[in-house]
Fold this sequence. Notes:
Layout: E1 9-15, H1 22-34, E2 39-44, H2 47-50, H3 53-57, H4 70-77, H5 81-94, E3 97-102, H6 105-113, E4 119-121, H7 129-137, E5 142-145, H8 151-164, E6 168-173, H9 187-195, E7 201-205, H10 211-218, E8 223-227, H11 245-262, H12 274-280, E9 283-286, E10 301-304, H13 316-319
Parallel strand pairs: 1-2, 1-8, 2-3, 4-5, 5-6, 6-7, 7-8
Antiparallel strand pairs: 9-10
Helix pairs in contact: 1-5, 7-8, 10-11
Protein name: N-acetylneuraminate-9-phosphate synthase
EC number: 2.5.1.57
GO molecular function, one term: N-acylneuraminate-9-phosphate synthase activity
Amino acid sequence: MIGGSNPCFIIAEIGQNHQGDIEIAKKMIRMAKDCGADCAKFQKSELEDRFNRQALDRPYTSKHSWGKTYGEHKRHLEFSHKQYRELQKYAEEVGIFLTASGMDEMAVEFLHEINVPFFKVASCDTNNFPYLEKTAKKGRPMVVSSGMQSMETMRRVYQTVKKHNQNFCILQCTSAYPLEAEDVNLHVITEYQKEFPDIPIGYSGHETGIYISVAAVALGAKVVERHVTLDKSWKGSDHEASLEPAELAELVRAIRTVERALGTGIKQMLPCEKVCHDKLGKSVVAKKAIPRGTVISLDMLDVKVAEPRGVAPEDIFQLVGKKVTADVEEDESITEDVVDSYGKKDKS
């Protein structure tokens, strides 16, 4: 369950940081589980449906390249349907959810076929409205990233998905790798909460470190997605913006701590404060001796840490104008039982 009072759902985005090696992919699934993430996520493409021929045939000379052309590079990193089923089975054995971003409509068809727990819509497809509509109509939960989009576009996204599927959330995201702090724009989370109050809002981050993601949870993010890697020095453009195992584990711990700290929003003295209150809490005392029958005025009163505990300082003005029913010595606590007509019925 996502949203409401449920814990933040933490997605470890493996993406294509597995280097095209299914054994590394399995290690990363295990790592995500061991670090406390809720879901391990990949990226699934049917390359001829995602790219046109010219895009696949263009030379790719980047230091991160796994082939002479972009198509060769992407094919090296793309797992087959059989391999995805193998990874899915492994994730079930490990005990962690597994899904993928469907990077084209045919990839979504395959992910639907293998019954992933939810569809992830990558930022590059968020304004692809035919894709969004077809995906939403399948009725499976959706997590939609919003990198590179405007609020106007996100309103259209919300309306398009909502028409066919009530079960989705939107993630604030800035599509830069790695992401500089000044470009994160966490306040968009708050704006999304105002614009779309009936769905959970989350955060997909590509920044360095964990602080910003933890802050997103403090702002109410109910989903956090972060890229993960086994080694930031590996070949691949996403590794630098990814978390290594120790960082992912620390992020999970920090998020769970922040969730505990958020509380109920009800301000009251808590049981854990009783010791401090008993030791340092103050009471109303007599600034000077007050004889029995005297009408109390404010200049007769002081506030101190006192034994026994007397009237609470916030009620001092309720004492003014009332008579004392017994002699009160200088510096003595003024207790409820020595003030005429003082009691709960007088308090507001």
